[in-house]
Automatic annotation (TrEMBL), chain A:
Sorted UniProt keywords: Membrane, Transmembrane, Transmembrane helix
Keyword Membrane: yes
The keyword Transmembrane is assigned to this record: yes
Chain segments annotated as coiled-coil in the UniProt record: none
TM ranges: 25-44, 50-70, 91-115, 127-149, 156-174, 194-214
UniProt source species: Lentzea flava
Name this polypeptide is given: ABC-2 type transport system permease protein
Tree of life domain: Bacteria
Automatic annotation (TrEMBL), chain B:
Annotated Gene3D superfamilies: P-loop containing nucleotide triphosphate hydrolases
GO molecular function annotations of the record: ATP binding
Lineage summary: Bacteria, Bacillati, Actinomycetota, Actinomycetes, Pseudonocardiales
Keywords: ATP-binding, Nucleotide-binding, Transport
Species: Lentzea flava
SUPFAM superfamilies cross-referenced by the UniProt entry: P-loop containing nucleoside triphosphate hydrolases
Record domain ABC transporter: where: 8-222
UniProt-listed SMART domains: AAA
PANTHER family per record: ABC TRANSPORTER ATP-BINDING PROTEIN ALBC-RELATED
The protein, known as: ABC transporter ATP-binding protein
Keyword Nucleotide-binding listed: yes
Length: 217, 243
């Protein structure tokens, strides 16, 4: 329906403006840029290998950012927005779009950074593999963040605990998780189809979080 | 949407939060024109308004509402960083509605471009009302007179007079509207030697059951008290009093 799309686009503009007016987005951005600076302060290794650290970093940062986006409006203002928009599904879709857009922007930063700072030369192919890997990790993070943020979990304490637990548990599980598929491929300085499959999981996770949110609200 | 009427229809609506007590039981209400909702604190006015506006889903029952609903919550948040003018502009775009003159009519004073957190309570309430009046069909307002000065209160009444609106108001601002008392009176049945408490609780019209040892106090909607009483006797309970 054309009207619904227009409403979602207007909601994306509104929620993005609201996130920017609040300053909670600054904390994940500063942590991201600070750790990026540390990761690439010296020779970070072969082109794709160098991307594994920043991809691993982007996963929790994107989850954090998704929680910031999902909870930027307090619960009462969110109710007004839901009534104005004509339903939870439009608002949660718009919030997911904003979270993904910010995550993709950070993925771009993550992919460009070593091209500028790493002494190893990058081919275009390596750059796009890196951009894809970062985007996949960011999508997985956004999915995890939205899955436990309001309206799925109403209290920010439970949200933080759940997101932190999942993020911390993801790393030791290694290649058992989609994040592990991506990091494994980058760590071996090669591209594999499993990165694409991880991307499919990431998109499914984000979409699933929207659906769960609509059902829970 | 699925609205076949201009107003809101709530059909046999019940609501409980999780496994908690019933906040609303079998409530049927058709809103066309201005309707004022009254009732003591805790009778479920805000819950009913949230269900009518579409913020909450009822546990059971059916709600039919038109496409464009405006909603003002009981307390508009006081820590919003966005300015009033950009908030209203964004809400207008979301609704694809033209700006209205509600702020001027309510006598808004203060900065439209400063963060809304810097506005006084009354002026923030006027912004909340202005966004709700962007809606073209129904208004659902929870205690909208809170914080308004007398002039703005009178203006709000005149703004509402020709609208379809469901408004909670326990201070009697809106005398010309149809009144619906949410408590609606009730019948209290005191029982002793209680058996089958769960069966009683599940009966239509039962608002609450308070068990103390082998006795219980059952609060029932007036129109269902005969059936509930008959069922209590059939189950073998003793009736101590009905008031």
């Amino acid at each position: 329906m054309f009207g619904a799309e227009r409403a979602v686009i207007s909601l994306v503009r509104y929620l993005a403006a609201d996130v920017l007016r609040g300053q909670r987005y600054l904390a994940p951005v500063i942590v991201f840029l600070g750790v990026m600076g540390m990761l690439f302060s010296s020779d970070a290794g072969r082109p794709l290998e160098a991307y594994s650290g920043s991809s691993a970093l982007l996963y929790p940062i994107a989850a954090w950012m998704a929680v910031v986006v999902a909870t930027s409006e307090d619960a009462v203002r969110r109710e007004i927005t839901v009534v104005s928009a004509g339903g939870w599904s439009r608002v949660l879709t718009a919030a997911a779009v904003v979270a993904v857009a910010i995550a993709v922007a950070m993925a771009l930063v993550g992919a460009v950074w070593p091209v500028v700072t790493n002494p190893h030369p990058y081919t275009a192919r390596e750059f796009f593999v890196g951009l894809g890997a970062h985007t996949v990790c960011a999508l997985l993070g956004v999915g995890v963040g939205l899955m436990f943020a309001r309206p799925v979990f109403d209290s920010i304490g439970r949200t933080v605990l759940a997101v932190f637990s999942v993020v911390v548990l993801t790393y030791p599980l290694g290649r058992a998780t989609p994040l592990g598929w991506v990091l494994d491929a980058l760590g071996h300085n090669r591209f594999s189809l499993s990165v694409l499959w991880a991307g499919v999981v990431g998109v499914a996770l984000v979409a699933g979080a929207v659906v769960v949110g609509v059902r829970r609200a | 949407m699925d609205g076949y009427l201009d107003g809101v229809l709530l059909d046999q609506v019940s609501k409980r939060y999780g496994r908690g007590p019933w906040v609303l039981r079998d409530l049927t209400l058709e809103v066309s024109g201005p309707v004022v909702l009254t009732g003591a604190n805790g009778t479920g006015k805000s819950t009913l308004l949230k269900i009518a506006a579409g913020v909450l889903k009822p546990t059971s029952g059916r709600v039919v509402r038109p496409a464009s609903v405006g909603y003002v919550p009981e307390r508009f948040p006081s820590d919003v960083k966005m300015s009033a003018s950009s908030y209203l502009a964004h809400m207008g775009r979301v609704r694809r509605a033209a700006a209205n003159d509600v702020l001027e009519r309510l006598g808004f004073v203060g900065s439209l471009t400063a963060p809304m957190s810097e506005l006084s309570k009354g002026n923030a309430q006027k912004v909340a009302l202005a966004q709700a009046f962007l809606a073209s069909d129904v208004l659902v307002l929870d205690e909208p007179w809170t914080g308004l000065d007398p002039a703005a209160s009178a203006e709000l009444v005149s703004l509402l007079e020709d609208r379809t609106a469901l408004v909670s108001d326990h201070e009697g601002h809106f005398v010309s509207a149809t009144r619906v008392d949410l408590a609606g009176g009730h019948v209290t049945i005191e029982l002793s030697r209680v058996v089958g408490l769960d069966a009683l609780e599940a009966l239509e019209g039962v608002r609450s059951v308070l068990a103390r040892g082998s006795s219980a106090r059952v609060v029932v909607a007036p129109d269902r008290s005969d059936q509930v009483l008959a069922e209590a006797l059939r189950l073998g309970c003793s009736v101590r009093s009905v008031r």
